[in-house]
Amino acid sequence: MSSGPPGSSAGPTSVEEQDVHDPQQPADEGTRLGRLAATVERLRREVREAHAAADGRALIELAKGILVERLGCNPGEAARQLSSLAEQAGLSQLELAADIVNQAAQDRLTEAASQFVSAATGQGSPAEGGEPGDGRVSVAVRLRTAESGVLAADDTQAVSESLLQHALAPLGATAVAVWAAGTDGSLTLAGAAGFAPGEPGRWRYVPPGVATPARQALVERGTVWFGDVSEAGLPSIGQLPEERGGRVVVPAGTGGRILGVLEIVWPHPLPPQPPVLQRQVEALAELIAHTLEDHPETRWIPRPPDSELLDLANGLHDPALVLRPHLDADGRLADFRIQHVNTNFVDFAGRPRSAVNGALLLEAYPLAAGEGGLFEKIERVHATGEPFRAERMPLTAIIDQVPLTAVANVSISRHGDCVLLLWRVLDEAARVAGLLQHAQRLGRMGGFEENLVTGEITWNGQLFTLLGLPQTAPPIPLQQLPRHAHPDDAVALGRFLRALMHHQRPASTAFRLQRSDGVSRHIRVVAEPVLDVHGRLLGVRGAYQDISAQHWTEVALAATRDQLAHTEQQAAERNRLALQLQQAIMPPTHGPIEAFDLRIAVRYRPAEEEHLVGGDWYDCVVLPSKQVLLSLGDVAGHGIEAATGMVVLRNALRGLATTGAGPAQLLTWLNLVAHHLTEQVTATAVCALFDPETRVLRWARAGHFPPIMLRDGEASELPLIEGVLLGALSEARFEEGSVQLHKDDVLLMYTDGLIERKDRSLEHSQRQLLTVATAEVSSLEQRLDHLLTYSKSDTDDDTCVIGIQLR
């Protein structure tokens, strides 16, 4: 019952009293909190709407201006009309303003928004982050708001911030960079938003030729999407080493000229995007292109006066064309107008100057539009400003339905907003060929060409005579050249083939040819690789020259040389003696060794500097226990000290192996020898014992690379086991591993001279070696030769390789 006065309610008279006495307090408090949350949410929504209205004020004013023009009313009436139309359509004034501007502009932004409408559903576009509602309104408002922000921005930095806020953040992007493209191919950061402080400063300038995502878009002159930029291996602004995120880079330009690149960053991998989103991104890139026109890096070089450029063209001795960009109705580059033909112009198709001057380039030379052809090169020069030079480029014109082709040296350069094209036709091919034939005969030379794809070899007649072969004999492939040379010249020919076939660079060498008729001649071979447009090796071409007369003349003159020549001869003799000493210390490479069920092959390649005696060593011997000892090592350094230490360790290991100890114990003892019985020698080594009865190979290593196992066409390293450098510690323990060999297994042991490079890590080179080792070859010896030819080393270190194959 109530205890209040008559006429009062049954409950308390205030909220405070209710909180104290009402048993329903929790329910009422929940109602209060719900109302408070609803109020906060309403205020937030109003703030967002206020911000949106402020951001879109310029867009609304633009729509009012369009209504004033179309309806012939004053600004006040236009504002009331806009409000009334928005209310009738159930849209906000900002949304209706975007529609009005789209209808009036009909530009690239309108196209992007319209394409989104065609693909949108009632659930919104995935490209919009899955936002519900009318996709048309979202895209139109965002793009037009971004446009108004860009037009109102004072500099490119403000443009970047406006793009990120209005157009890109709703797409899930977190950062944007605007790059200005220099005429030399460099990139300058003109604006950036969303990156960590200090990051834009680190990427202020990217020199020409540095591979980045923006540079790729500049070179390809097209949009490039990276689903995960970390997989592309291209560094860029804001990218952390382990970060995985999506990126898109879009070239921005006008009239066919690229002014810069728009780079957009997503914090997560980016799945394939629909075409409508791609159109939106390209529309934004076109929008920022206009802001880059006044950037210092992209500002157009003032166009030289026509008279100045024409005087330059007329002063050239080669045919030249002055080309001016020809734009279509949308302002895009469609062709080039031949504005001027110089006085020395001679059309390679035989047409007069009047037939070419003033015409469009693709009308005069329609076949220039072919893929990778002349028009593409001119377009690239006009877009990037980077000059183009090419030798022996085919040029084709159609005259009376007949294609006429000439080979010419071509040069293309940009001058202001014009492009200067000049060429020199190589039309003396027959006369040059005749002169070349006489020169080859007088110089005792013969030319050849070898197609590595089809295996076809072409020799001229002089070459058969030079090498002592009948005209009906099959030509000798370059790879088989060592079979016809003196054995002492095998190393020089190996270097020649490796430089030509693997490194794909011109090479030459001299060797002693042992002809089939018994005559020995001194021959010099010079060759160069033939590559396709993608840099793949198609073949080789070159020449042989008989230098026997020159050689014997030099021998005859050697007896009458003065003291200076005698001093040079003494230096050459010292180098020769050093090389002989190296060969005396290191057993020469013979044919394959047969031991029980093993076939063993060894290759040793000395350093190119012949006076440097290396410390690489190897040994293959059958022990009294009927086990086969296989060892290989590398003493640190070069010279007599390294060679002496190598002899001590090699002979000591052979003697220790007769005790019957295992590989780990042998390396333990050998470490004592290196530490106590040599002059501070350190070395890496690998030691293995093969048991013919069990076919088990036990091995241990001392800081050396593990052997490579080839089994069933796959290559892999044996599991890494512990073992420190020989001579580094007075006492060391070595771990022992074992492997069961199967029939046709191949085991490879090698020193670091095979893979060591100055610009790559050893781990990277080891992975490359595993790929090279799996090449299809017919014998163990050819596999070792293949490894030496195609190895990735560039440190001029001597190299040992041992290969064993179980039959």
From TrEMBL:
Renumbered residue ranges of the record's region Disordered: 1-33, 116-135
Superkingdom assignment: Bacteria
Listed Low complexity bias regions: 1-14
GO function term, MF aspect, one: phosphatase activity
Domain PAC: 507-559
InterPro entries assigned: ANTAR (IPR005561), Bact_Sigma-Reg (IPR052016), CheY-like_superfamily (IPR011006), GAF-like_dom_sf (IPR029016), PAS-assoc_C (IPR000700), PAS-like_dom_sf (IPR035965), PAS_fold_3 (IPR013655), PPM-type-like_dom_sf (IPR036457)
Swiss-Prot/TrEMBL keywords: Hydrolase, Transcription, Transcription regulation
Domain ANTAR, first and last residues per copy: 40-101
Metal-binding listed as a keyword: no
Any single Pfam family the record assigns to this protein: SpoIIE
Record protein name field: SpoIIE family protein phosphatase
UniProt organism field: Nonomuraea rhodomycinica
Taxonomic lineage from the root: Bacteria, Bacillati, Actinomycetota, Actinomycetes, Streptosporangiales
